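Q: Joint fold for the lines below.
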Amino acid sequence: MSGGGSRVLKCRGFRWEGVELARYKDEEEGSRFRGVTRQTLLGESEPDLASVTRYFEVAPGGHSTLELHRHPHVVVVLRGRGTVRLGDESFELEPFDCVHVTPETPHQFRAAGDEPLGFLCIVDRERDRPRAVEEEEPAHPQGG
Amino acid sequence: MSGGGSRVLKCRGFRWEGVELARYKDEEEGSRFRGVTRQTLLGESEPDLASVTRYFEVAPGGHSTLELHRHPHVVVVLRGRGTVRLGDESFELEPFDCVHVTPETPHQFRAAGDEPLGFLCIVDRERDRPRAVEEEEPAHPQGG
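A: Joint structure:
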């Protein structure tokens, strides 16, 4: 029996062996996002996979872009605490909480406390580009 | 802005809110597998998702079926320690290690130590059924 390309990516301190620590987006960090890194674990160079598994980490005080797109997200928190905004509401997050972001839902992740907020985010390999949402008014504090 | 069905599944002690703790397989527990549970987090009842995200937990001393199938797996360990067999080799696993099981690779997860081995396993929604592999000889101890 052969392993046929199967492999284990070892993790040490939330860095995966052989995986580049990448920029979150190809645009300048500023008001739209702050303190976010990306590691693409599997799916970009593995043609048998229809989904891409990424790990994002948001530094304390940081946040992702408030954005939306047609493709959905599956998110599973691995470390830290924070909030996710889903439409008009915000929800607290802690390790292993799972989030379903449905198509066209504006969403944003924020780290809380002293530890980074780290989470897996699984998407389809074929997907549309995110569109940033321009903030008109503050979101309701801590709904749902 | 609307949340449009987006939601957070809170996790407490590796049980997710509203998610059934299910049998690993619809067959009797025995020599093929032992001490495995399944929670399907997202993808079975969410038509926008092309992938299904499951959480499996293998009790201390337990193991999954040695099996193979055409669809690939993406696995991320959330708790415990153990090993994964991939073809003829076995690899140690600890939290946050990531595994790519390619199509037709015989694979099996085993828990080691006193804590359960818990991991996410992401698959395509449309997929073939696993086929059990009948063991002919013991796998090489701890390769790769």
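Q: Anything notable?
A: Residues 88 and 138 of chain A are 9 Å apart (CA to CA). The mean pLDDT of chain A is 92.
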